[in-house]
UniProtKB/TrEMBL annotation:
Belongs to the BexD/CtrA/VexA family. This is Uncharacterized protein. Coiled coil: none annotated. The chain crosses the membrane at residues 247-266. It is a multi-pass membrane protein.
Length: 269
């Protein structure tokens, strides 16, 4: 009887240890089902150096907006009746995709308006800047300006399925989406040490996240910015391997004891 009790206790310890180990790999453990959690911030991507921007200007009279749009190897001329015509000279199919490159000083060269300082602005702020210039300088009365990122990218390093640099369409990507694109975390990942490294001008900042907590949603780095680096710190490999070996040893011992107990019970009947 005593042996049976000891065997039951050993089995319970192993089961509870296994459950505790699996719990360490559960994401967002403190979130309740159907509970509503407010979104406390409005996200807007910031323009940085080396970004490529697509800027399209339209108006009620499309011909008047032509000089303000990047158009490859096109030249414009004013006809006798006052209309604007354009001549294409070997326009490449990918010319428009190159967009406006933000230089090392944070500027772009925009048709007619000249040099614009765009670093640190959001897409909405740059849109308003261009519209205001076009109206104040009496170039267009009713401009409609659209600004988009052409090379929004980020990198994921460390203990993930596959590391690399990823590009996305648009400018909205979350930390969880970035990890999913990188093949998710591995069993050797530290869930409480997921870092986002971000550039601010000539400086960099790092912020660590715990993916087991809902607090990740309120992080100022939850929405990634252009050129962010996500780094997933590995666990102590040696300690993990030792724990796995111990678990394997106890499993073998339990299996052996179970087999012997079964044989004893069968022979004593």
């Amino acid at each position: 009887m005593d042996k049976t009790i000891k065997l039951a206790c050993l089995l319970a310890i192993i089961i509870f240890s296994s459950c505790a180990s699996r719990k360490d790999f559960v994401y967002l453990q403190d979130m309740d089902e159907l509970q509503e959690y407010p979104m406390v911030q409005k996200y807007e991507a910031i323009i940085h150096r080396d970004d490529r921007l697509s800027i399209i200007v339209n108006s009620k009279n499309p011909e008047l907006s032509l000089p303000f749009n990047m158009s490859g190897s096109r030249s414009y001329s004013v006809e006798a009746d006052g209309s604007i015509s354009n001549n294409e000279v070997g326009v490449l199919s990918d010319e428009k995709e190159k967009g406006y490159l933000v230089d090392i000083n944070g500027n772009i060269d925009f048709p007619v308006l000249g040099q614009l300082h765009v670093e640190g602005l959001t897409r909405r702020q740059l849109t308003e800047l261009i519209k205001k210039r076009l109206i104040n300088e009496e170039l267009l009365k009713d401009p409609m300006v659209t600004v988009n990122f052409l090379n929004f990218k980020f990198s994921v390093l460390g203990e993930v399925g596959h590391v690399g640099t990823f590009e996305v369409k648009g400018d909205r990507i979350t930390l969880l989406e970035a990890l999913a694109m990188a093949g998710d975390l591995t069993p050797r990942s530290r869930l409480d040490r997921i870092a986002v490294i971000r550039e601010y001008g000539n400086k960099r900042r790092i912020l660590f996240h715990d993916i087991r907590s809902k607090d990740i949603f309120t992080s100022p780095y939850y929405y990634l910015q252009q050129n962010d680096i996500v780094y997933v710190e590995p666990t102590n490999m040696k300690a993990t391997e030792q724990a796995q070996r111990k678990l394997s040893t106890w499993s073998m011992i339990l299996s052996f004891i179970t087999t012997i107990t079964s044989l004893v019970l069968l022979t004593t009947k």
